[in-house]
Amino acid sequence: MSDIAIRVENLGKMFRIGARRERYRTFRDALAGLWRRSGSGRRAATKPFWALKGVSFEIRRGEVVGVIGRNGAGKSTLLKVLSRITEPTEGFAEIHGRVGSLLEVGTGFHPELTGRENVFLNGAILGMHRAQIEARFDEIVAFAEIEEFLDTPVKHYSSGMYLRLAFAVAAHLEPEILVVDEVLAVGDAEFQKKCLGKMGEVSARGRTVLFVSHNMQAISTLTKRCLLLANGSCQALGPTEEIIACYLEGGVRAQRTYHAEPCGDHPNVTRVEVETSEPNGVHANGRPLRIKFEVHCPRAVRSGAFSFQIVDSLAQPVVHIWLFDSELPIFRTPGCHHLTCQIPKLRLYMGRFSIRTHLSQSYGGQHYETLDGICPFEVAMLYQHRSWPWQPGVCKYIEDALWSSSSQDAHGTVDNIWVAPPRS
Amino acid sequence: MTSSATPNPSTLIRIEPSKGWVSLKLDELWAHRELLYFLTWRDVKVRYKQTALGILWAILQPVMMMVVFSLFFGKLGKMSSDGLPYAPWSLAGLVPWTFFAYGLAQSSGSLVGSQNLIKKVYFPRLVIPISSVLGGIVDFVISFAILLVMMPFFHLWPSVNIVWLPVFLLLAFVSSLGVGLWLSALNVEYRDIRYMVPFLTQFWMFATPIAYSSSLLDKYPVWKTLYGLNPLVGVVEGFRWALLGTHTRPGPMILVSALSAVLVLVSGAFYFRRMEKNFADRV
After folding, report:
1. Residues A245, A119: one domain?
2. A88-107 pLDDT, tens per residue?
3. This model's pTM is above 0.90
4. Does residue A409 form part of some domain?
């Protein structure tokens, strides 16, 4: 048993929701409650909600485990129970070793205190001893890169400096078991990278880490095993790659096609579907992508324009494709029109995208409808292997390109032409 | 740090639902004494930041009260002050009272005020109200120094009884924390407490012999002893006795005060611990 770090058995956490939670209880309520307690009316207003139910798993010592799931799946509640912030309603958890939890960076930072003072305060709150903080103080300050501002009250810090200092203290916590909630989602890209590095270092040192994140990239980099939570219960526990795939499928399937009723008095889009090359809304870069629309026209419109954008996960439109009435007269007859747009070779780089549609009269005319964030899909770099692994965020799209080289050596000149990237 | 990575089988934490009254876990509280120190230090450090008068506030409050009391109760009301000059006599009551009232106000709101901590980090929650009350010690020391400086002007000199003073300070601390524990835990559930505290403090002040002397009750010894149920009666009278040598020697009244304060503290601590499991969800 000694190699088990965390054992969770049938853990459950219930909250009562309903009108009562909307406001604070007051004495008047309590007195009214006393009055009514003889009857059975008191609990009627609330209904139980299980944020966690029947969760069981084991984590071995030295393992780094990711916890993923959609918002409200119970991830944070699980971490709160394991960090003893809130008590479970049923079941139990056994933790072998000292737990350090990072549900937030900079907890307890006081704006009026200086950076130096806050390091000590925050360290103590996170459970470090004064001697430990003193021993690591220089390291913390160096990591945060705030040497010059050490004696400035943190209220004068930029938000970046503040976060760096906060994370630096947290990163130098040395518990046997570390519980981390989404704290890497802060700061600029450069600092996030540094934090990820630090997290990797922590796990490499043989510490047990439980790590919640929505950043699949971070999860897959840092963890070998993953726990998938859905609606408060444990759906799957297994190798990270499998669990992430399972999670993404489940997440996207919900609203992959858009449906709406004809609105009656003006043209509107009644259906949008993105036909991806792979199942479950995943499209392979370089493959043809087909997007189908259904536009309903209650009556003939003299001129119309339809266009759509492909929008990336940062809400930046990256592709715009349009269709004007002058090209294809779809608005001139009342009824239902089916449109299919085929992109012969989707060059978008890996990432998550969604569709935004615009429907209006021709330029200067009436605007009918804009739909945003519909039909999410994911582009993946499938069937294309290269010696350098694909990394997210490198670019928005990949262009076909032609390389040529000319090399001189002892035997004369050699010319080469190479087409890149090789596409299937 | 390689030492912390080595497994320590002795630290097994079992997390499960608790029921009813739970242990105070004083050992755990002791283990977090550094945190207690840091939180107290933070409160002290931050208290007068960005104020024009700064630490003067610690002096102004009791001194202004003393002036008002001396004028209205001493000069105009001709209240008995155990045969001593009214001003230092009332200040000797106001100094421990201010410490008590400050601790009460701070600790009762402390849990709600520290909700960001409570929702994000685990530590024994008792640390929060305790540090709030402890933060008042600095103000106490300063106003106490003023009192000491003032006394010679009225030809008052502390007697050897002054060695008992820490005991009465402790009694004030125990009373303040005891009530603070009750109110802070109740405040998590019922925000009425926030509105009740100023009123309670005012009421309590008049129920404590600060502006008047408890010798008014000398004719009714039983009532006087019962009066001691208000722990602040013991604190204030004890303070005056230890410092100014009033004839309010520790007697049954002060004993009653001490017992009552300890009772409030112990019951408050258990109540607090019982409610503690809900703090993060309710606050």
Report:
1. yes
2. 999 999 999 888 888 888 88
3. no
4. no
